[in-house]
Amino acid sequence: MKWLFTAAVAAVVAVGLSACETRPLDEARAMAPSGTEFDRALGDNYVALSQVEYLSGDRRDGGAYAMRAQMVRQGQTVLPETVEQRAFITDEEAPDLMAGRSRMMAAFDQGGRTSAPRDAANAQALFDCWQEQTAEGIQPDHIAACRDGFFLALEKVEASLMPAAFLVFFDFDRAVLTPEGRQIVQSAASAAQQRPFVRVVATGHTDTSGSAAYNLGLSQRRADAVRSYLVSLGIPADQIETRALGQTQPLVPTGDGVREPQNRRVEIDIQR
User: Distance between CA 180 and CA 169 in Å, rounded?
Assistant: First the structure.
């Protein structure tokens, strides 16, 4: 089963179940979505999960998801389940779930609910789904669908927190990394290593002091310095591309012959 939070899920309402049996779900569906975009999406996701559980005959989890939807729509903060909240999770299964939840909460704490609200809501609901299905241990394909969907959503949240580029600044007429510059390159390497990437592009720039030809070479040397340090930090050399733009794309527009510190830089772009 593909756990997709779309209008299609709403069409599979608990056919054949009495109104009494689905009362928590009916009450949740009757409540108007409220709060932030994350809250509204999370409430919708829990309603969708509740519907699927009721349809499959699981009244306990159907009711539990419905109650979580109600809490969200009442303005309460609803966190993803902890591993301890689910019985029957084995010692072998627990570490992966705990690591996934920890990674998700770190992204949330950094602002992921705001930067990617719908993906964050998907990640939370799918984590609860992954944990529930793991505890049941009946349908491996359902466990895999929830787990894979969780990580896909979480990666989108994490991507929304990544800076578009890391800026490494240089001293005048120099292509040697400063201590501050080394720290920025270290941060870029750490961000690249968090998940798969296609390439890392280091683009060198200069200010307008000096000739255009000289500055083109200087910008290349700066890009090469960053590349060398990235390689020493474990980034594969064949996945690093360098570019030299000289003085053609200043961060701070100036006239010719101006020593502008912010234009003496290398931009590191992690392309995924």
Answer: 8
